[in-house]
Amino acid sequence: MLQALTLLLVCQLLGETLVRLLSLGIPGPLVGMGLLLVFLAYKGGPDQGLNEVSDGILRNLSLLFVPAAVGVIQQLGLIQDQWLALGLAIIGSTLLTMLVTVGVFLGVARLMQARA
């Protein structure tokens, strides 16, 4: 169990390190997750310890939203001042995400039909 938690933290640390060294414009934990994916693909999948640790983290995932909620409360004045821009950005990005998702789904469906 300690080895699995260490693996997760080392992957995140390596991701953060690579992002800072290479001045990448993406979050370090995302790079770390990619490194973990490569490692697990090479290894053949997660072991029992990693499954247990990840299940424990997922069971307590709601605790990770507390800092974000505190940040929203701390910036409430800014949010009130910029509510229109924030609202348009949220609605626009949601619509764009939905359109891209539909496009990818249709593209994959066509590829799957072409193979059959």
Would you mind describing this structure in some detail?
The structure is a single chain. With 116 residues, the chain is an all-alpha fold. The protein has two domains: 1-63, no CATH class; 79-116. 84% of the residues lie in helices and 0% in strands. The chain contains six helices and no strands. α1 (2-22) crosses α2 (28-43) and α1 crosses α3 (48-59). The relative contact order is 0.07. The mean pLDDT is 93.
How far apart, in Å, are the first and last alpha carbons?
44 Å
Q: How many domains in all? A: 2
- The structure class reads mainly alpha
Largest sheet: none
Q: What's the helix-strand series?
A: HHHHHH
The strand count comes to: 0
Average pLDDT level: 93
Percentage beta strand: under 5%
Radius of gyration: 20 Å
Ranges where pLDDT stays below 50 over 5 or more residues in a row are none
Work out the helix count. 6
What level of helicity do the residues show?
over 70%
Give the overall shape.
extended
Protein name: Holin-like protein
Membrane topology: Multi-pass membrane protein
Main location: membrane
Subcellular location: Cell membrane
